[in-house]
Amino acid sequence: MNKKMLVPAAVAAMMLALAGCSAGGDAGGGLSIDVPDVPMLEELGEPEGSVDIVAWSGFVEPAWSDAFTEETGCVVNRRVAGTSDEMVTLMRTGEYDLVSASGDASLRLIAGGDVAPINLDLIPNFGDDIVEGMQGQIYDTINGKSYGVPIGRGANILQYNTDVVTEEPTSWDVVWEADSPYAGQIIAYDAPIYIADAAVYLMHHEPDLGITNPYALDQTQLDAAIALLQQQNEIVSEYWADPVAQITSFAGGSTVVGTSWEVLRKLAEDDRFQGTLPVEGSTGWSDAWMISSQSDSPNCAYLWMDYTSAAEVNGAIAMNFGMAPANAAFCETSDEAAAHCEEFNATDEEYFSNVWFWTTPIEQCVDGRTDVQCTNFQQWTQAWLTVKG
Q1: Segment 182-203 mean pLDDT
Q2: C-beta atoms surrounding 309 within 10 Å
Q3: Backbone dihedral region of 345: left (phi > 0), alpha (psi from -120 to 50 degrees) or beta?
Q4: pLDDT of residue 15 exceeding 70
Q5: How many other C-beta atoms can be found within 10 angstroms of the C-beta atom of residue 320?
Q6: Do residues 200 and 192 touch, judged by C-beta distance below 8 A?
Q7: For the chain, percent helix, then strand, then coil, each to nearest 5?
Q8: What kind and span of H or E run contains 321?
Q9: Which of these, 108, 7, 49, 33, lies nearest to 303 by C-alpha position?
């Protein structure tokens, strides 16, 4: 699963749509912005017989899609996407009914009118057991309407090789500061959204900058984040976007510390590699099903969203991929499920309160400021090029 953000052709148009914003929102109540008026399905009809899904690798597997087909009559056609940008592009063709979007794609799809609001009343399994921290978020809840059905979440952790980094790091300073003892052996994430990681670090160490949300950066704050990233560039050995490359870098010894996902540390199957969430907190990702505004199989799409929201199926997806499930009831279904939930902090809202989930940067400051204009996705992408050179 490679969630690398690239520049879509329609970014400029999307940013114009997002520029006409109203009041700001917070992480618990969604966001208020001007978006296309797309109708929401009011009631379920007869299943159409098939559903076309764009998803991350590991999210749609025969183990549960075959059972879904047997139960509903809806045949599942899967298209695996490697990046958020690819997902946005595919969804804009109108050929797919559903997408497992991350927060770095959600606002683009919503603002472009590519996805429709979701009628949660038609998804019985979206109930009290869906963890609170994945509901009503600014990346998929707009103007009081939900556009996403949560699937799972994870933090971008600090991974380290205990053979070299013999004490658990408590700060991200080991990957940001020029005098890091691991200079030349540091790996960083390769995407414009990584600018938010620099902003998280600055929030803690340079409070005078006034950053209160790493995805709401005015020009001065963005400049500070870019300066930190350029400083880091001098000590980074490599950047990663391909998870396999990240694992290989650690396993080969060329990297001893850097950004990772908990699942990558686990997949490496090497006890030397440990992970931690430093004192500054971190960025992270949260995935949700979103339905196309052009779907020709909305009934099958809703049935899929309901089916995969059930504790057992949602948990199976979470275990298959390696993330915290959205449905907390899964954690009580077995000892194995309980162990998985504990490992991935599934119901630990205190843990995730220190995680800033990927959110597309827009001109409206999502931290609530109205006296300045924040920088948008396109500006972040252009700024990222100055970091990489």
Answers
A1: 96
A2: 23
A3: left
A4: no
A5: 15
A6: no
A7: 40, 20, 45
A8: helix 311-321
A9: 49
Distance set, CA 388 to CA 175, 198, 370 (Å) = 16, 14, 32
**What's the whole-number mean pLDDT along residues 172-182?**
98
pLDDT in tens, 314-330: 999 999 999 999 999 99
Structural domains for the chain? 11-153+286-348 (3.40.190.10), 155-283+362-388 (3.40.190.10)
Residue type, 73: G
Per-residue model confidence as pLDDT tens digits over 61-111 = 999 999 999 999 999 999 999 888 899 999 999 999 999 999 889 988 998
Burial 346-366 (b: 16+ CB within 10 A, else e): bbeeebbeebbbbbbbbbbbb
Question: Which residue type occupies 173?
Answer: D
Both tokens of 221, joined, read 């704050």
Report the DSSP beta bridge partners of residue 98: 53, 291
Query: Which residue has 């505004």 as its token pair?
Result: 293
156: phi then psi, degrees, rounded to nearest 5: -90, 100
The two counts, helices (H) then strands (E), for the chain are 14, 13
Amino acid identity for residue 187 in this structure: I
Distances in whole angstroms, Cα of residue 302 to Cα of each of 40, 113, 139, 290: 12, 18, 20, 10
Q: What angle do CA 88, 218, 143 make, to 5 degrees?
A: 50
382: which 2 tokens?
């252009």
User: What is the bridge-based pairing of β-strands 282-291 and 141-142?
Assistant: unpaired
For residue 325, give the nearest of 307, 306, 312 by alpha carbon. 312
**Amino acid at site 113:** G
Between 335-343 and 311-321, two packed helices, what is the crossing angle to 10 degrees?
Answer: 50
Give the pLDDT confidence of 234-243 residue by residue, as tens digits: 999 999 988 8
What is the helix (H) or strand (E) element at residue 104, kind and residue range?
helix 103-111
Residue 255 DSSP code: -
Round to whole Å and give the CA distance between 305 and 295.
Answer: 14
Structure tokens at 11: 């970014």
**Strands (DSSP E) found in 162-254:** 186-189, 236-240
